[in-house]
Known about the structure:
Layout: H1 8-13, H2 19-40, H3 44-52, H4 59-73, H5 76-85, H6 97-119, H7 124-127, H8 131-146, H9 150-159, H10 163-172, H11 177-193, H12 197-212, H13 219-228, H14 232-243, H15 247-262, H16 266-283, H17 286-289, H18 291-297, H19 303-310, H20 315-327, H21 330-342, H22 348-357, H23 363-376, H24 384-387, H25 390-393, H26 399-411, H27 419-423, H28 432-439, H29 448-461, H30 470-478, H31 483-496, H32 503-513, H33 518-531, H34 538-550, H35 554-567, H36 576-583, H37 588-601, H38 608-620, H39 624-637, H40 645-649, H41 658-671, H42 678-684, H43 693-707, H44 712-727, H45 733-746, H46 748-751, E1 753-755, H47 766-775, E2 792-794, E3 796-800, E4 810-813, H48 828-835, H49 843-866, H50 868-877, E5 890-893, E6 896-897, E7 906-907, E8 914-916, E9 924-930, H51 946-959
Parallel strand pairs: 3-9
Antiparallel strand pairs: 1-2, 3-6, 4-5, 4-7, 8-9
Helix pairs in contact: 2-4, 3-4, 4-5, 5-6, 6-8, 8-9, 9-10, 9-11, 10-12, 11-12, 12-13, 13-14, 13-15, 14-15, 14-16, 15-20, 16-20, 18-19, 19-20, 23-26, 23-45, 26-29, 29-31, 30-31, 31-33, 32-33, 33-35, 34-35, 35-37, 36-37, 37-39, 38-39, 39-41, 41-43, 43-45, 44-45
Amino acid sequence: MPAVSSAAGLLALLDEPSDDLKQHALSHLNKVVHDYWFQISGSIGSVEALYEDDDFAHRELAALVASKVFYHLGELDDALTYALGAGSLFDVEDQSEYVTTLVARCLDQYFEKRVRQSEGRGEESETVIDSRLTAIVERMLDKCLSAGQYDQAIGVALEGRRLDKLEEVILRAPAGEERTRVLKYALRVCQQLIVSREFRQQVLRLVIRLYESVPSPDWLDICQCLMFLDDAPEVARILNKLLQGGEEEELLAYQIGFDLVENELQSFLGEVAARLEQQQQIAAPEAVDAAPEAAAMDTDAPAGAAAAAGGGGGPLAARVAKLRDILSGKTPIALYLDFLYRHNHADLQVLKNIKGAVDARVSVCHSATIAANALMHAGSTVDTFLRTNLEWLARATNWAKFSATASLGVIHRGHLAQGRALMAPYLPRGDAAAAAAAAAGGGGGGTSYSEGGALYALGLIYANHGQDIRQFLLESLRGTSNEVTQHGACLGLGLAALGTDDEEALEDIKNVLYSDSAVAGEAAGISLGLLCCGSGGERVAAEALAYAHDTQHEKIIRGVALGLALMQYGREEAAEALIEQMTRDADPIIRYGGMYVIGMAYRGTDNNGAVQKLLSFAVSDVSDDVRRAAVLCLGFVLMNVPHQCPRIVALLAESFNPHVRYGAAMAVGLACGGTGLKEALALLEPMMSDPTDYVRQGALIAIALVLIQQPESRVAPFRKRLDKFITEKHEEVMCKMGAIIAAGILDGGGRNTTIGLRSRSGYFRRTSVVGLAVFTQYWYWYPLLYFLSLAFQPSVLIALNSDLKMPKAAFTCNCKPSIFAYPPPLTAELKETKSKVPTAVLSTTAKAAERQRKKAAEKEKAAAGADKMETDEAGAAGGAKKPEAEPSSYTLENPARVPPGQARFVVLPTSGRWLPVKRESPVGILVMRDTQPGEPQELVTAQGDGAAAAAATAPAAAATAPAAAAPAAGDMDDEPPPPAPFTYQP
C-alpha cells in the first residue's frame, strides 16, 4: 500500500453504510493515527459512535483508535476509558510511549481506587473498580512473573493492596535462595514504603506465614516482624525452640536476642523473657523445686547464674539464662559500656580550651561547657574533667547545679551495676544508701537542686532499663514536696519506666501534675508521655488535655502538650483524632504540641498528608512557636528519607521569619543525623552567618548532628569554625552556646557514637527518636539537653562466642587506615602560643633592631652568592626521606570502632576459626561460631569495670566542693612577663 499523505479519505469511509468499509477505514486509521491524529480528531465523533454501536462487530477497534486520538489530545482519562473498551487489542506488552503512558495511568487509577476501597473513604461510586481495569493490572502482573521480574510484581501487588496477588508472586518465585530473596525484598518494602499501618501489619503476617513455609526460614526476619506486630508469645516460642536445638540454633537465638534489643522496646522484651521462663518451667517442672536450694548456695551469683541454677543447672537452663540477660539489656549494655571506656578518645584539651575561652560568670556558657563534657564522655564513665575542675564546677548554682549534677547521668549512662552508688552523695537524704555514704564521708544529700539533678541523672543512667531503680524513684517522688526535687524525680521516673504504662507510676505522676506547680508540672507532663510512649493512653491523654485547658501555667501546658506527642509515637492514623483536636485549638501552646503529635505519630513514614499539614502550619499559623515547631517536625516525618529533607525545607530556610529558619536548620539536623549528606551541609553552612543569633545556634548544632562520626577530613574545617565562634569575645551568648554544644556532639561518647535512629533491621529505635524530640525542648529548658544522649548509638563491631565473651578475632577493612581514624589530639603548646600577649617593645628599640637585621641580611646575601649551587645540591641530597605509602587495607581487632561510613568496607571472615552466624551487616554485636571447638580460646579482657572505682570518687569529691571559689592558680599561667628594663631617651 502506498504511503498515506492524508487521513481525509479514510475518514470519509466511516460514513459508508457497509461495515466492511468501516472496518477497513478503522484498520488503516489505527496505523496512521500517530501521524494524522489532528485530522482524525475533527471526526472523533464518528469513531465514538462506531464504538457505542452495539451492532458493529469491530467496536474494540474503534475504541482503540479513539483512545489514541485522546492520548494525543492530552485527555488521558478519556484515552484510558477507550483503551479499556479495546479489550485484547490494547496490548500491555507493547513498549510504545502510548501504551507505557496509559498503563501507568491505569495503575494509578487502580491503586487510588483500591486504597479508597480498603480504607473506606469516598462515595461508593468512587470506590467501584472497573473489571476491565483489574484485568489490565492482572495482565501486567502476569507479564512481570513471566519475565521473572518478581520485585516489580511485588510492587504492583503492594500498591494495589492485593494480598492474594502478593502471595501468588512469592509462591511463584523459584524455591530456595530466590524465594528467600523475594521475601526479604517484600519485607524491606513493607517497612519503608507502605503508608497504611493496618495494611502493613497484614503484609507482615502474610510474610511471616510464607517465611515459615520455606525449608530454611530466616528466623531473624521472622522475629523482627513478630516484634513489630507485638506478638511476644510467638517470639518466645521460636526462641525456646531454637534454644532446644543444636549449637548453631543456640547461637542464632542469641543473635536474634541482640537484634531485638536494638529496637529498644523493653516492655515487649520483658514479656518475651517472662514467657521464656514460663515455658522452661513447664518443660522441666522438677527443676523449680531445686531453685531455692541452688540459689542459697551462692547468694552473690548474678541474675543469669541464678536463673541457670533455677533451671537445675542443665544446658537448656543455662542457655535460657544467657538469653534472658541479653533481652533484659544487661549483656549488651555491659558490652557497650566496656567498649566506650576502652576506646574513649575524647580530647580533654578541647574542653580546656572551651573553659579558658568562655567567661565562667556567664551561666549559659558555663552550663553549656558542662553539657559538652557530658556529651563528649557519654557512656564512657570517664569524668576526669569534672574531678580536675571542682572549683570551677562549684560555681554552678540553683538550676545550673541541677544540670551539672544531671550531667553525671549522661557520663555514666548504662552503668546499671553501680549507677545508684555513683549518685548516692547527691540523692535525697531519706535514702538509706545515701545516708550510709554520708556517714562514710562521701557527702550526704545537698540542696534540692543537686537532689533533683541526681534523680534526673538516675533516669538517664537507667533509661529504658529501670526495673532496679523504679521503686526508689517512686519513693523519692512520694517523699518530697519540693518542686525542684519533684521535677528531677518525674523526669527520672519517666526515663526509667519508658513505655511501660506503669499504672502505679502514672498515678503518682498525675498527683504531681494536678498540684498545679509550674516547675514540677512541666516535668510531670513530659513524664506522662514517656511512661505511655507509643501506647496512645486514651484515658490519660484525655485527662491531661483537659487539665492543660484548665491550668494557667504555660510550663504545665507545654509539658503536657509534649507528653501527648510522645504518647502518639508511631501510631500514625490512630492519632488523627488527637491531631485534629490539638491543631485546631485556640491556645498556641496546644497547637505547638499538635505539631509534635504529627511528627511523633508519623515519624519516619514520609507520609504526604503529614508533610502537607506541617508545611501548611509552617506558613500560615500566627504563632512563631507553632511555625518553628511545624518546620522542625518535618525532620521527624522525613527521617526515613533524609536526602529529601534539605530539598523540602530549602525555601523555608530562606524565610523572612528567623523562627522558621531555625526550624529548617534543626529539621535537617534531625533527619540527616550521622549521614554526612552534602545536600544537608550545603543548606546549613550559609546559615552559620545568619544575622539572628539563635538561627546560627541551630545551624551549628544541626551541622554537628550531620557530621558526627564522619571522616576527620570533612569535620576539620567545621571544628575550626567552632573554635572561632567560641573564642570570639564579641560573639553573642546564644551562638557561643550552640558552638559549645556542637563541639560536644561531634566528639560524642568519646568519639565512638553516632546518631542511631534505626536499628540494623531497619526499624526506628524508639528511645533515640524520643530523646531527640525532648532534646529540641532545650529552647525553653536547658536541662533537657541531656536527652540527646539517648540518641547516641555506639559505632562498634563486637564479636562474641557461645559464652557471650569476646574472643580475640580480627576483621579486614578494605580502606586506608587514615580515612576513619580518630582525629589527632590538640596540643596545649600550640594553644598557649596563640593566646599569649607579646612583650611590650619601644619604638626606638625596634628601630635599632631593624638596622641590625638589615646589616646582617646584606652580609649573608654577599656570602651566599658564591656557594649557592653547592647549598642547593647539598639540600637536595640531604632531604627528608619519602614517606611510606599508606596501606589500602588493615585489620580491625575485636572489639572495633566502625563508623557508619566504614561499615561497607569491613569484610566478615568466610574462613578461619570464628565465623559469624549472621552475615548481613558488619556492625553491632555479632555472635560467632567456633570452627575449632576443642582448642583453647584466647579472650579479650573486659576493662569497663576498671572505671567504676575511679568514677565513684568523683561525685563524692564534687559534693564536698565549696559553693564558690576564686580562680584557680592555673588560670594565671598565660600571663605575659613584664617588659625588660630600659632607659628612656626623649
